[in-house]
Amino acid sequence: MRYAILDLGTNTFNLLIIEAGTGNRGNIILSRKEPVKLGEDGITRGMISERAFARGLAAIGNHMRYINDCRAGHIYAYATSAIRSAGNGLEFVRVVYEKFNIGIQVISGDKEAELIYRGVKQAVDMADTRHLILDIGGGSNELIIADGNRIYWKKSFPMGMARLLEQFRPSDPVTPQEIKEFEDYFGLHLDSFFEAAFIHRPDILIGSSGTFDTFRALLSENYRGGEPSGSPFFTIDTDDFGKLHQRLLESTSAERLRMKGMDPVRVEMIVIAAIFVNFIVSRLNIRTMIQSDYSLKEGAVSEILEQQMLST
């Protein structure tokens, strides 16, 4: 049996098609993504703009061709921050159902964090060491403190990169004053996280999803470290991240677009993301960083197959 998982994020709509096998992972048949920028020109107003709405439908239409070609019998779709917080988010869900016969689950921030944790666990062996899992999205950021056995603390913050880009509209390149404004904003809104971090003391950061995928690509092209090709995770040297962070701060969007490894959809948001990660790494004195290939959609596979096994 083949399953199609759609992760409908703010910046990209991701598709994973797997064939059920033994255990709760499945065998990957296809993985692809479509850029949508669903939050563009509307996320701070709590709306999906007309053009973003159309891009979202077009992206699902493109994914459907692959789903049909791969003969996936079951489709599971998960909507996250941009759709759940938009006044016309349920309208998007309705149109998708009428047009493609896909029922979208609009999941909470807590559920999103749980699925991210499930996915990351399949890529990185956390054992009994407490890690900070960070998933940076366009609409929200999920911060999870966990080890390989349980979640100790989790929270979804509605301060994703598309929101912050539209809210702050930084200069190109970003100015020192704007960097301070971002850091002050993070410090003000992440107080509950830092309280939890003081209690649980994670000293390893695992980053998942598009931002960290882009960090991995940029670091692979320009710096050292990493893992063998095909590994589901990538070790990030913190000194190299520091160099990349500084390079991004000093760059214009045109210069970033020419960087080897840069995802074009993240050219504008990657600077804010780097400031965000650097702020957390510095505050917690984190010395080990890991990028995980697996996140929400792989976590969804784990949950779906586990439920299938329990029902048989």
Provide a descriptive summary of the structure in words.
The chain has 312 residues and is an alpha/beta fold. The chain has two domains: 2-107, ATPase, nucleotide binding domain (Nucleotidyltransferase, domain 5), CATH 3.30.420.40; 110-296, Nucleotidyltransferase, domain 5, CATH 3.30.420.150. Helix content is 46%, strand content 21%. It is built from twelve helices and eleven strands. It has helices at residues 50-69, 81-84, 89-100, 109-123, 161-168, 176-189, 191-200, 210-222, 238-250, 253-257, 270-284, 296-311; strands at residues 2-8, 12-19, 27-35, 74-79, 104-106, 131-136, 141-146, 151-157, 204-208, 233-236, 288-292. The strands form two sheets. It has a six-stranded mixed β-sheet, sandwiched between helices. Strands 3-2-1-4-5 form a five-stranded mixed β-sheet, sandwiched between helices. Strand 2 and strand 3 form a beta hairpin. The longest helix has 20 residues, at 50-69. It is globular.
Q: In brief, what are we looking at here?
A:
This protein is α/β, with parallel strands linked by helices and 312 residues long.
The end-to-end span amounts to 14 Å
Mean model confidence by pLDDT: 94
The coarse overall form would be: globular
Spatial arrangement of strands, main beta sheet: 8-7-6-9-11-10
The largest β sheet comes out as: 6 strands, mixed
- The number of distinct β-strands equals 11
Enumerate how many helices there are, as a single number.
12
Q: Which percent range describes the beta-strand content? A: 15-25%
* Rg of Cα set: 19 Å
Per CATH, what is the topology of the largest domain?
Nucleotidyltransferase, domain 5
**What is the helix/strand order?**
EEEHEHHEHEEEHHHEHEHHHEH
- Indicate the low-confidence ranges by residue numbers: none
Number of domains: 2
> In the CATH classification, which architecture of the largest domain applies?
2-Layer Sandwich
Derived structural class: alpha/beta
Query: What percent of residues adopt helix (DSSP H or I)?
Result: 40-55%
Q: Can you identify the CATH superfamily of the largest domain?
A: Exopolyphosphatase. Domain 2
CATH C-level class of the largest domain = Alpha Beta
